[in-house]
Design a protein that fits this description.
By secondary structure, this protein is of the alpha+beta class. Helices cover 18% and strands 28% of the residues.
Length: 218
C-alpha cells in the first residue's frame, strides 16, 4: 500500500508522499545518474531512500563492472578499500524479500536492480539490503532470444523482444532479480563507467566512487 515515508535526516523527520514518483540522484566521480524508483516495489523503493537519507552509500565504490553486462555498487566494505581488496560481500545486516513485477519490469538496458546471494544459499531470491546494479547489457537478435527462451523454459513478451533487439539488456536475469527502478538521466555516465579498465575480479583499476545519493525534491 502506498503512503507516507518518514525519514530521519540530521535528527529531524521528513515525510514524503510515496504515491508520487520518486527520483534519486547518484552523484559519482564520473558524473551524476538520476534513477526513478518504482512504486510497485515499495520495499526496495523505501529501503533505497532510507539508505540514501542515512548516507550509507557515500564513499562506496562501483566495485564490480562488466562491460556489456552491468555496473554494481553499494558494498559498505568498499569505502576506503585498498587496491586489490576483494569486494562484494558487504551488507547492512538484512535482506529484502523479492518483489518481482515481471514481466512488466525486466532487465532492459538502464534498469536498476537489487543484487543478491546465489540460489544455493538463497532459494527465495531475497535481495541484498544495500547492493544494487544498473544494467548495460547488449543487443540480441531474435534467434538468440528464441534459443534463450528454450533454455530458460519461458516466453518473452513482445515488449521484452522489442527492448532486447533494440536497446538491449540482460534477458537471462529476468524473473531472478528484483528490478526496482530505471535511469531517467545520466545514462552516458553509466556507459562511461562500464568502459573503465578493470582487474581480474572486475573491480575498476581506478576507483569510481559514489559521492552522494539524494532524493530529487520536486
Amino acid at each position: 500500500m502506498l503512503g507516507l515515508l518518514t525519514a530521519c535526516q540530521g535528527g529531524s523527520k521528513k515525510q514524503r508522499d510515496m504515491s508520487k514518483e520518486i527520483n534519486v540522484k547518484i552523484e559519482t566521480t564520473l558524473g551524476d545518474i538520476v534513477v526513478k524508483l518504482y512504486n510497485e516495489t515499495p520495499l526496495h523503493r523505501d529501503n533505497f531512500i532510507k539508505l540514501a537519507d542515512e548516507g550509507t552509500y557515500e564513499g562506496t565504490l562501483f566495485h564490480r563492472v562488466i562491460k556489456d553486462f552491468m555496473i554494481q555498487a553499494g558494498d559498505p566494505d568498499s569505502k576506503g578499500a585498498p587496491a586489490g581488496q576483494m569486494l562484494g560481500s558487504g551488507d547492512v545486516g538484512y535482506t529484502l524479500p523479492a518483489e518481482f513485477v515481471y514481466p512488466k519490469y525486466f532487465h532492459r538496458k538502464g534498469v536498476l536492480s537489487a543484487a543478491r546471494m546465489g540460489d544455493a544459499v538463497n532459494p527465495k531470491k531475497a535481495s541484498s539490503g544495500c547492493q544494487f546494479y544498473i544494467v548495460t547489457g547488449r543487443v540480441y537478435d531474435t534467434n538468440a532470444l528464441m534459443n534463450m527462451e528454450a533454455r530458460m523454459g519461458t516466453e518473452f513478451t513482445p515488449e521484452q523482444i522489442e527492448a532486447y533487439t533494440t536497446v538491449g539488456g540482460t534477458p537471462h536475469l529476468d524473473g531472478q532479480y528484483t528490478v526496482f527502478g530505471e535511469v531517467v538521466k545520466g545514462m552516458e555516465v553509466v556507459e562511461q563507467i562500464q568502459q573503465v579498465a578493470t582487474d581480474p575480479r572486475d573491480r575498476p583499476l581506478q576507483d569510481v566512487k559514489i559521492k552522494k545519493v539524494t532524493v530529487v525534491e520536486e
